[in-house]
Amino acid sequence: MKQAYQTLNVSKKNSIELSLKILLVDDEKEFVLTLSERLQIRDMWTAVVFDGKSALDLIHTDAPEVMIIDLKMPVIDGIDVLKQVKQTKPEIEVIVLTGHGSEQDKKKCMGLGAFAYMQKPVDIDLLSKSLKKALEKIKANKSPVI
Amino acid sequence: MTKDKHELITGGMQFFGQMSASATHEIKNTLAIINESAGLLEDLSMMAETNPPLSPARVNDISQRVKRQVVRADLVVRKLNRFSHSVDRQTQITDLEKTVCFVLDLASRLIEMQGVVVKVIPPLSHIRVDTNLFYLENMIWKAIETACLAAKEKKQVKISFGTDADTPSIWFSMETVKDNLMDDLFGSKEDDVLLAYLNISIKKNKENNGFCLLWPKRF
Prior knowledge:
The complex is a heterodimer. Chain A is α/β, with parallel strands linked by helices. Chain A is built from five helices and five strands, in the order βαβαβαβαβα. Helices cover 57% and strands 16% of the residues of chain B.
């Protein structure tokens, strides 16, 4: 089976040293492929899908730690993806990255359990920081309680 | 201001807002791609300081990506500008097919979101009406939105034009429609006010899973 998640792992200069699997979901292909490449440059493992259905399929076969999803997508939109992910795989942290940023949408997404809500165009450093915080939360949840 | 006029203006503003929000969202998407492309160039140039030199083909590829997005954003801005000028005149002679195609183009992103394919069958000759262009666009969008909502399974909508030149009409037909939905199409106060203002009536055709916008017979 072809590995879904890939990294470039060529530069340590920008690295935030994450061993994190990230699934990017957006129907804007050029956007999501470029963002994926930039995260790979930062030593992250990424996979890209262009619709909600493919995302929901992949989380059951090869689940990521974090998902970055757009809100407005054809057929199954980001809100539905977020709802289903939180119902079936609540351990996955979801960052909503959208060009359609109303306060109402933000409230709804955070209420449904999104880890963060960010607007396009996004600052890669802010996104990287958010991914790092998501990793810390995941690690904290995994560490045994003494 | 009468209650009907208030209803008409409020509905028109909602339509304008919906179209503007869709267009600006698309522009934001193009800006996001341009932003990531610039960021990628920055990343690659930093990497080129320590790794093998940056390939000219790679730079050209990113530059072409930016150019494509500029063309895309320019098209959206042109559409939005044309739409904004719809309110310039109280009434004007308007070509029905051209107006339908423009509304479809303007709202293409919203239609795509619903996963519906809309096909326009051009009329044999131009059909023109003297009307308020902005509110006609508003009515056509309501009809398209209603047809998209009603279409099920194959999710296809066909738009055609009546053949009687003296009685202009625009037909919307769906392959299959959701049960009982044909009974509930239109009929809100806002729909009634808009139809009355444009002097249009709605004719439903349950057998053919469709409905039409019908103008009165010309004498």
